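Researcher: We're reviewing a set of sequences before deciding which ones to prioritize for further study. For each one, I'd like a predicted 3D structure that I can look through quickly. This is Thymidylate kinase. If possible, include the structure in token form so it fits the rest of the review sheet.
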Amino acid sequence: MSNRGAFIAIEGLDRSGKTTQVATLQARLESEGIPVKLFKFPDRTTAIGIMIDSYLRSQSELDDRAIHLLFSANRWELAGAIEQLLAEGTTVVCDRYAFSGVAFSTAKGLSFEWCRSPEVSLPAPDVTLFLDISPEKARERGGYGDERYEKEEMQRKVRDVFRQISTEFDEARWVTLDAGRRREDVAADVWNCVQPFTSGLASPLQRLWNK
Ligand code: DGP
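Model: Here's the predicted structure for Thymidylate kinase, in token form for your review sheet.
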């Protein structure tokens, strides 16, 4: 039986260069002839995603728990498509995933355990790359955007929760990269982490919250 595709999640703080790194990784995989599909969470194109988009732009208000569940539902509504692609041998790259859900909502003051609950049983990434950047370095790169959460104090808290999450996974499944460096150097590290997965995996897909 042929290998399934690898499931790669890229997480990162705002201003970490995550979008550029995801695009670079996708291009590299394609140039190597590896079938790849990119998902970006939140996916603002679905009915649920439109509600999330409106909330992030501060065009609507929602209870903290209600928006948390919408973010999670947005992942669940696409989980089946992700599983299907992986089973067909396609590598799936996610720009943000369940860990952002836990990090941002916990940073707002909700309990870590409560935030994690709706993410349990989602397909687990085979590896998560966390693009870490200090708030000082992020500031040097120019201001944050206008969306909700794009504030330095919030980013500090989010970073702390990401650090907490990282301690729950072994080094093979969670890799923290210093994203404050030159983008070429970060891209080289991203590739080094992803390259071993490019021939796919024979092992079954795991479920969150699997260490
Ligand atoms: P992005 O499109 O990558 O800039 O992400 C949009 C914003 O939403 C960003 O500030 C991070 C935040 N975010 C992403 N996923 C989640 C989530 O699941 N829950 C919460 N509360 N925030 C999230």
